[in-house]
Amino acid sequence: MKTGIFICHCGHNIKHTVDVKKLSEYFRHYPNVVVSEDYVFVCSEPGQDMIRESIEKEGLDRVIIASCTPSLHGEMFKDVLKKSDLNPFLLRRVSIREHCSWIGDDVEKNTEKAKRLILAGLYSAAHYVPLEEKIVDVKKSALIVGGGVSGLSAAVFLSRMGMQVYLVEKEAELGGHVRVLKNIWPSGRDGKDIIDEMVKELEGRRNVELFTSTAISSFEGFFGNYEVTLDTPVGEKKLTAGGVIIAIGFSPFDPGTKPELNYGKDKRIITTLDFERNADALQLPENPRVAILHCIGSRDEQIGKPYCSRVCCVNALRVGDAIKNRYGDSYVESFYMDVRAHPRGGEEYFEDTQEKGVLFTRANVAEIMPMPTGVMIRGEDTLFGETFEREFDLVVLSIGMSPPADSKLIASLFKVTLDKDKFFLEAHIKLRPFDTAVKGIFIAGSCSGPKDVEESINHGRASAVKLFGFLNLGYAYVDPFIAHVDPKRCSGCRMCEQACVAKAIKYDEAQRVVHVEDAACMGCGLCNATCPSSAISLKGYIDCMIDDEISAFLEAI
Amino acid sequence: MQGKKIKNGGIESALGHFLKDEQHLVFGFEKGKDNVSHHVFKDSLDHYAPLNPVFSANGALYLRRIFAKGAQIVLMLRPCEIRAYVELVKLTQIEREDVIAVSVDCLGTISSKEKTGNAPTDVDPLREYFKDPEKMRWACRVCRERRGVVGDAGIRIDKNGSLWAIPYTGKGETFLSLLEGDAEAVPEDMFIVSSGKTEKFQVDMETFSKDFSKCIMCMNCRDMCPVCYCIDCVFKGDEYLPKGDALLNKIFRTGSVDIPQGKELFHLIRMFHVSQTCVGCGACEEACPQGIPLTQYFKGISERLQGMFGYMSGRSFEEPIPYVTFLEEELKDAED
Hints:
The complex is a heterodimer of chains A (557) and B (336).
Chain A: E1 3-8, H1 20-28, E2 33-39, H2 45-58, E3 62-67, H3 74-83, E4 91-95, H4 97-101, H5 107-125, E5 134-137, E6 141-145, H6 149-160, E7 164-168, H7 191-203, E8 208-211, E9 215-222, E10 225-232, E11 235-241, E12 243-246, E13 251-252, E14 269-271, H8 272-278, E15 289-296, H9 312-326, E16 331-336, H10 346-355, E17 359-370, E18 375-381, E19 386-392, E20 394-399, E21 401-402, H11 407-414, E22 441-443, H12 453-471, E23 475-478, E24 483-485, H13 495-499, E25 505-508, E26 513-516, H14 526-530, E27 536-538, H15 543-554
Chain B: E1 2-5, H1 10-18, E2 24-31, E3 36-42, E4 48-49, E5 54-55, E6 72-77, H2 79-90, E7 99-104, E8 110-111, H3 123-129, H4 138-141, E9 153-157, E10 163-167, H5 170-178, E11 184-185, H6 205-212, H7 220-224, H8 244-254, H9 263-274, H10 283-287, H11 294-308
């Protein structure tokens, strides 16, 4: 075995707390190591040349690059190996910057730790074998679940790009919640117009199929070739989709779950959504007294909704604004915890509303009590620390967003994960905010957490772009890190079958062993961990590799 | 509940009749010259004993990987053995189709390591013999389920010492039809009652290390465990227990080592593998040449673990093993 070790200074980033010279000197005399060099920027052009030359001159069969985190420059270094005709899976990246030099200042300790990290890489790389990335054919078609504003905007983008789009909506009408909004802040547009525009475009396209009043009865297959069965009003429909965008939106918080609000028992207590629908039909006196309550169903640990719903502060401001516009001499008081008018222009809008005469009282409202003459609000003013009781003619509850009612059902159907608040969880909050953990399944809109209309549209489009990028070529590369069953060791107990989230494990009745469907396997390793006889191993992460790596860390401690 | 009261010699004649068929077998106990032991009867049921007061191994061990179609086999075994059989069926290690599993009430057993000659085999003397529970093996003394209420049918002992056959499944009805007489209501009270709650097992790492320090890694406990079903064990090979050159390589890399290495790891991994299916029969302890109190650990831990899932190994064919069902909502209490 001929291993080459390249240690990067990363300018001063690594060098200033790790003795890189000592490291390269140490490994130069290590068994199986033929090249051990340190260089100021291994990722630079001359740095890459150095690796390439060493591979060609010394005939390296393992390359270890000790530098920044593997997620940075990963593909680039793989290409360096490819250009030198070395299998890119014989490359090992060791993070001695994020995991070492950036953490502490003690040069001696850091150098020792870096040595240990590189050693682990060395032990592990000894078990590497050349692997091939597989190419699978993918269908250029997308299933979009949910015909709300984000689902529709994803569908519009994908249909414009020529992809086959199947849009499924459980209600009879497309548009979701946005359809009923008469005045979308800040443009003032009617939600119905926005929806109709998008639906009209979709209806005119040959590559779009819209299914309303439809449920999804089954979902199988794997990335690029998902098999979907729809339960439509005209019968069952089977289709194949390359990828999926889940955009099932949200459920408005039901204030009925908080009995102290007395919502639904008195028509003078309404929600912002009720106000939006029926503002004209409200029977208010000449100069009405109106209370607006913020954070109903948000930031409330007691009902298990600790999150901020993001849209309701602006909604509350809009109610105050509307009342003030209509009744000049009205008395409008907003009871808030904090005003988070976060979208662009929100803060200015907050100022405007205040200038128009809406009073803002920082308060915890304990109870709303309908009385013959009005509605009594009892609570505590949290700035003055005193309790109050005030009577109003109308109470508007600014309700937040709850996870969609179907979230559990849809999550288990598509085998994607929900977060602690039961919204859909993204694969990574910053780096992969549109992806789920399942390849080819994306999320869009408020089903992944409260969003306003603008954000939902953007989210839908962004997921559509990502999905388009995955499917556009008609084929896709699949990681070679998939599970493999040794039939000689398999006892056929089918434990792994249950553990597999991708349903990639199939039981062979005749042989009484299981095997893995390569294309479906996601390489998560759950089956590997479940198998009691270690009959399953994950290519690229075999057990003895990890054992050796751990022993390298623990040796001589 | 309906069942049949078994007349004297009723089991023997029924099973003897059953064995007339070439393809039919009975797996039960035979009263030999010196001992009572497991026996597979073919053609005739000579020296059959319904009860065996001596525990040597769990009979389900011999049933692993019975897949043959055609041969009909009746199991007349202890509840712990039938429970292990049920677990193995769920793990697709046994084809249930051609097996009728009958659990026979267990009055308790003594270890095969003790002087076994004195132990009686008939119901009444046995009841008398085990009146003092101290005579039993520890596993039997703390057994949760010595009642023949598992499998396809059960043989129960009533308060007067008469035997009753009770069917639990369709296969059990087939077994019942072999017996003479008519079905009648079974008495409510039986001689053996459920032992109910057991003590919560807890041990510290120090005691654990001390108890297992005697282990010589012969792995007899693994080999005799009825639910340790893998055809190839992870502990085979050099990964966990290096020998020869592999051992020397390891020593040169890591320095001097104790031998045998990793015995605690071996038991912990085995515990992880069997804890959900363990029936607490104590076969591991029976097989241990070093006298390690394995039952205490394996039974104690598995009962606690199964309790968390409201599961009891071998109780029913339908109840899925918690380990193979992955539920999003489970183990909320383990989150913190």
